[in-house]
Write the structure tokens for this entry.
Amino acid sequence: MYYEAGQHKAAGLPYNPFKAIVAPRPIGWITTLDGQGRINLAPYSFFNAVSDSPPTVFFASSGRSREVGVKDSQANAEETGEFVCNMATWDLRDAMNKTSASLPAGEDEAAFAGLEMVPSRLVKPPRVKASPVHLECRYLQTLELPSNDPDNGNFVVFGEVVAVHIDDAMIDEKGLLDVTRYKPIARLGYMDYAVVEQVFSMDRPS
């Protein structure tokens, strides 16, 4: 099968498979505070690490009409200079999904999903207590990408990780983070997700 980008229906595919091809993608469950100190918690499936020296992550904020304005996570990170990434896990899948609801600006998605929040150390946005791994981030910059719809923005928000929290129970006897213990979930295409329950290792060739 071959088709030019955006022409999947002409190739006989009812839904665009792009997100299913570039998969799995970790979910950035982003906490921010607005200028009034109100909590915003939202999951982003276009999220990843892009550097480790210094450790840097991004989340992509798109699909929002310019008339309405950018998404709250982006606006808050840009205004306050901080955000937290709480890793979404199998046990938290329903709560994570609930926080994707479109609530009015300023309404607390964490409270809506019944999640307890705890303070961070170096940044002001709080952390999801039940999440076993958190990345405290300082906002670096926003990059605007081209958009197929000029009326909709397409942005990537970058942050430097300045502090890391890991539940001690997720560390194995060798001192390594065992992802099969905390079971991060990832986004696939369509309405599908995956969970990490098995890993394998390979040595690089010398």
